[in-house]
């Protein structure tokens, strides 16, 4: 059985580089190991915290409960038809490694999601998305372990209640399930999505003549690396805030007051705003307070310059949110999970 360790530093397990400690810690690579670890949880009063890549989490405090690192591996084709390939990926697989695997096989659907940090297990939990694509568009099903019942359940797309960076695993079933694997439905014939953000401009700059999923992926990688800091060099969790949506009438009011405001229409009639632009216009871009700061190139990203505590980052995020609301009347919401 995998041994449960005590008083383990978690700095290397979260991309913000917060120096916190887990009272109990273990890693698991199978559902049997997971079941045993939960059965032997030394602190049954606190639900275990499941860690993947640690790229979307903010530790405000030390963790008194059991922290479990999901290392379940595997990339396997489970079925195939004329138009699609269905690939089951272990929840512990690195997301970008999975994307690269698909690109090598010429399977389309996840190229716009290149270089997103984290692991496969977080992809449906967050309904990760970037550059006009969300995971729900290629999601087939997942298997998840029920912490209390010790059973494995299958979730289809409708069961997951996917929303903008949301699913039942962040809300209704929070802390109740551990995602074991995810099956994706990938396309043999690509449908290119290059209209969002600067992808078209980047492809042009790259001199791409014949569009391919590999070219789209490289364009996304180029854009992300030019705007977002590398967690290996400076602690961050990528986009710290969600892009907020407002009703159309309020958007028109804001647009009159701020002509450079950009909005993207949602299917429900609301308009999505760029949180980074709102934060930058509120004067926060490049701001630093001790070792906590707002990134100099992308105001959507909060950074740890070395020794910021989780509370330092959280307090800064609170001030940013209050400032944006005061200036624009728009409520920001954190994308990262605060624990």
From TrEMBL:
GO cellular component terms attached to this protein's record: cytosol
Q: Which reaction does it catalyse?
A: UDP-N-acetyl-alpha-D-muramate + NADP(+) = UDP-N-acetyl-3-O-(1-carboxyvinyl)-alpha-D-glucosamine + NADPH + H(+)
**Which keywords annotate this record?**
Cell cycle, Cell division, Cell shape, Cell wall biogenesis/degradation, Cytoplasm, FAD, Flavoprotein, NADP, Oxidoreductase, Peptidoglycan synthesis
Active site, UniProt feature: 165, 239, 335
Which molecular function GO terms apply here?
FAD binding; UDP-N-acetylmuramate dehydrogenase activity
* GO BP, one annotated term: cell division
Entries under InterPro entries matching the protein: FAD-bd_PCMH (IPR016166), FAD-bd_PCMH-like_sf (IPR036318), FAD-bd_PCMH_sub1 (IPR016167), FAD-bd_PCMH_sub2 (IPR016169), MurB (IPR003170), MurB_C (IPR011601), MurB_C_sf (IPR036635), Oxid_FAD_bind_N (IPR006094)
Is this entry keyworded Cell cycle?
yes
EC number assigned by the record: 1.3.1.98
Q: Which residues form the FAD-binding PCMH-type domain?
A: 17-189
- Which pathway does it operate in? Cell wall biogenesis; peptidoglycan biosynthesis
Q: Which cofactor does it need?
A: FAD
Q: Where in the cell is it found?
A: Cytoplasm
Free-text function comment from the UniProt entry:
Cell wall formation.
Family from the record = Belongs to the MurB family.
How is this protein named in the record? UDP-N-acetylenolpyruvoylglucosamine reductase
Q: Which organism is it from?
A: Niastella yeongjuensis
The lineage, from the top, is:
Bacteria, Pseudomonadati, Bacteroidota, Chitinophagia, Chitinophagales
